[in-house]
Automatic annotation (TrEMBL):
The keyword Endoplasmic reticulum does not apply. Belongs to the FPG family. PANTHER family: FORMAMIDOPYRIMIDINE-DNA GLYCOSYLASE (PTHR22993:SF9). The keyword ATP-binding does not apply. It comes from the Bacteria. Keywords: DNA damage, DNA repair, DNA-binding, Endonuclease, Glycosidase, Hydrolase, Lyase, Multifunctional enzyme, Nuclease. Gene3D superfamilies: 1.10.8.50, MutM-like, N-terminal. It catalyses: Hydrolysis of DNA containing ring-opened 7-methylguanine residues, releasing 2,6-diamino-4-hydroxy-5-(N-methyl)formamidopyrimidine. Residues 2-93 form the Formamidopyrimidine-DNA glycosylase catalytic domain. The lineage of its organism: Bacteria, Pseudomonadati, Pseudomonadota, Gammaproteobacteria, Lysobacterales. CDD domains: BaFpgNei_N_2. This is Endonuclease-8. GO terms for biological process: base-excision repair.
Length: 245
């Protein structure tokens, strides 16, 4: 599943489509996608794991789910969920994803301050939301899109290792300093992720995700195939990541 930084990369790569008119539409989405024909793309946005295409009076939300992908100015052999052919011979094609129309203004639908990659990100609001969830596991809290829009499983595992917190720690048991670190690193690691992914070196920087040994102390990493309410993979060091319970 693409995480927030990957959606930012898509938004930046597709920026040149803004202002272009949709010439033709294809795809197997059940949404009424033909309504896009003849419409002009006003702007592109990202919120967490959502890629948003704004048209006059409505928007289209793309969520890549677990296996979604996209192609710019080319096509895959498999049918697209949504394919947009623009003036100038350019194309945006989306595969194995969720397509939804949004009829309300995006500012009424999205809390931009919850997006860890957005300039409007509000760390104080994130801390308030976390304090209202004292029983939540740290691993689940980081994956809560209402608090950390854009954070996915890779970022979760790496952030918790960075701040030396066990994924099964309770939010209410974290000292204020650790809570502040969790909030700060969720954003910082997301931007590190963005930089590394653009340079095609992201995997080289993983410390615990999909790894076997802790780079800090050489301890064999613990692994859980499904951890917490989110039931996502977890990797952690039982020696240097403290359990706050």
């Amino acid at each position: 599943m693409p995480e927030g930084p990957s959606i930012v990369i898509l938004r930046e790569a597709a920026a040149g489509f803004a202002g272009r008119k949709v010439r033709a539409v294809h795809g197997n989405s059940r949404e009424p996608i033909q309504r896009l024909a003849g419409k002009r793309l006003v702007a592109l946005h990202s919120w967490g794991k959502h890629f948003l295409m704004e048209f006059d009076g409505f928007a289209v939300r793309i969520h890549f789910m677990l296996f979604g992908s996209y192609r710019i100015d080319e096509r895959k052999a498999t049918p697209a969920r949504l394919g947009l052919e623009f003036t100038g011979g350019r194309e945006l094609n989306f595969y194995a994803c969720s397509v939804r129309f949004i009829e309300q203004p995006l500012d009424e639908v999205y809390d931009w301050s919850a997006d860890v990659m957005n300039d409007a990100w509000d760390p104080a609001a994130a801390r308030r939301k976390l304090r209202a969830r004292p029983d939540a596991l740290a691993a689940d809290a980081l994956l809560d899109q209402d608090v950390f829009a854009g954070v996915g499983n890779i970022i979760k595992n790496e952030v918790l290792h960075r701040i030396r917190v066990h994924p099964e720690s309770r939010i209410g048991a974290l000292p204020p300093r650790k809570l502040g670190q969790l909030v700060a690193e969720a954003r910082q690691y997301s931007f590190d992720f963005l930089e590394w992914k653009k340079a095609f070196v992201l995997r080289k920087h993983w410390q615990v995700h999909a790894k076997k040994t802790c780079p800090r102390d050489g301890t064999e990493l613990s692994y859980r195939k499904e951890l917490g309410l989110a039931r996502r993979r977890a990797f952690w060091c039982s020696r240097c990541q403290r359990l706050y319970a």
